[in-house]
Design brief:
By secondary structure, the protein is mainly α. The chain contains five helices and no strands. The longest helix has 15 residues. The radius of gyration is 17 Å and the shape is globular. About 15% of the residues are buried.
Amino acid sequence: MTAPRPCPPAPGLMEAYASRFDRHFRSLAQRRSFREYLAGLLLPRDRNKTLTALAGAEPVVQAQAAAVQRLQFFLSEAQWDEQAVNAQRLAIVSSPVKQTSDSWRPRRL
């Protein structure tokens, strides 16, 4: 079996999180779409989290844009195991966090 092709990284610190799910997606397009979906969910947007907003498109005017259609296909038609992805998400969320620095603690005034 050949190694999967590398995926363009998700914005900022999301890549460390997104890469933990790569084994659940068969193709580069699925890994890329997952990162775009995460970015749409987690990054601030001016509008509610509709499909067009998740893809960063304008409603109505760009509803048929390629980014919106890719995300629509990923969420509704692509073959991936949403239960396995959710189980992975829950495992990550419930795992204890390793403290690497005290810099995150609030300062007392």
